[in-house]
Amino acid sequence: MPDLLGAVLQASTSSLQPGGVGRTQACPTCGERIPVVGWRPRTLTTVCGALRVERPWYHCRSCQHGWSPADLTWEVAPRARISAGVADWLIDLGGSTSFVDAQRELGKLSGLQVSAETIRQYTEERGTVLDMAEGAAAQSVLRTQEAAAPLDPAPGTLVVETDGVMVRYRSGWHEVKLGLVGGQVEGKLQNLSYVAARQPAEAFGPRLLAEAARRGALEIVGWDGPLTGTPLAQLRSVVVLGDGAHWIWELAADHFGERIEIVDFYHATQHVWTLAHALFGEGTFFAARWADFAILMLAEEGAGALLALLDATAAPSPTAATLLQRERQYFRTNQARMDYPTFRHRGLPLGSGAVESAGRHLVQLRMKRAGARWSDEGGQAVLTVRSRLISKRSLVA
Ligand SMILES: [Zn+2]
């Protein structure tokens, strides 16, 4: 294979042809015409194996710059020992599994020997570039309220979900925020794409917004308002699922058009359980009976019915009364976001199960391997590469 590739390169690269070598080349720095100074060998690890090629070499004396036009044709960076094709393999593997496993899999499947450290460098380098591009896109979307990347609209009803996952970094455990964007068609969530970052809500919000914009959230679908005067742009409607944290609702209110906000059902039931234990004792039969009843009520009749139940419930102690008061406030604040019977009737997702499962396979599977301790930059680079891989997006920045 390397010999075959060598012959193909020889035959298809114009600067390697007898006529090409005879011609002078313009110095990339100063533009002076330079004649060939000789042939130089170069070794490259390619998808076909280790390749050794001789190619003409040029050297500009005024600039002290040396180069070969063949390298430019092949898109191999100065001093790189790995072809662009192998680099893409390394980054794909490095985002998929640990660098040590990536080294072994690559060797087993292709026969290529590349160190785990090289795979780490390539993966983190590309991830950092992609991450910076995402950061720039987020800023651009905030500024322009328009998608920064070519659109890839989600089919059906646009759905945005978010969740947090704990990951161990060198500096300790930190929450990685995960966002999902997809389309709900006939009760099924499809064409999912993801963003993941260890960032506070203020920084992660714009990142998720940029992804939602790329999937069509900021597309104008019509105009509202009086026939005379300034019309209002009507944006595509969005379903937003959250765990009850405020930032997601604020993000949605600030940027999205008509929207349906849903508190993840499982998250809401956790609040019911906390309350049941406070009212009837931790782990008691009565606590379980009451929680089952209250959860059924929440599912079948929505938060309004549950609130009526809470209003008719007496707390056995001052501590329980404080908690009851707090939880009543929680359900009242989110009442409209817990209209589960209506959501179910409309075929909308009630839980953020899709983003939770992504938390496992996108974040935990790669980030929580035994002994893994991530630096901030390295961890973010791998999260970005992995989000792209699982979203089936290009790894080219
Ligand atoms: Zn020059």
Provide a descriptive summary of the structure in words.
The protein is built from 15 helices and 12 strands. The protein has helices at 2-12, 18-22, 69-74, 84-96, 99-110, 116-144, 201-214, 246-255, 265-280, 285-301, 303-311, 318-333, 340-345, 353-367, 376-390; strands at residues 25-26, 33-34, 38-46, 49-60, 65-67, 157-169, 172-185, 188-197, 220-224, 232-235, 238-242, 259-263. The strands form 4 sheets. It has a 5-stranded mixed β-sheet with strand order 8-7-6-11-12. Strands 3-4-5 form a 3-stranded antiparallel β-sheet. Strands 1-2 form a two-stranded antiparallel ribbon. α4 (84-96) crosses α5 and α11 (303-311) runs antiparallel to α12. The model has no long low-confidence stretch (mean pLDDT 90). Zinc ion is lined by residues 27, 29-30, 32, 60, 62-63, 65.
Number of extended strands: 12
* Strand adjacency order, main sheet: 8-7-6-11-12
Low-confidence stretches: none
The hetero molecules present are: zinc ion
Radius of gyration in whole Å, from Cα?
28 Å
Characterize the biggest β-sheet.
5 strands, mixed
Total count of domains:
3
What oligomeric state best describes the polypeptide chains here?
Answer: single chain
How much of the residues is beta strand, in percent?
15-25%
Report the span from N to C terminus: 29 Å
On the 0 to 100 scale, the average pLDDT is 90
Fraction of residues in H or I helices: 40-55%
Strand-and-helix sequence, N→C?
HHEEEEEHHHHEEEHEEEHEHHHHHHH
Shape: elongated
Query: What structural class should be given to the helix and strand makeup?
Result: alpha+beta
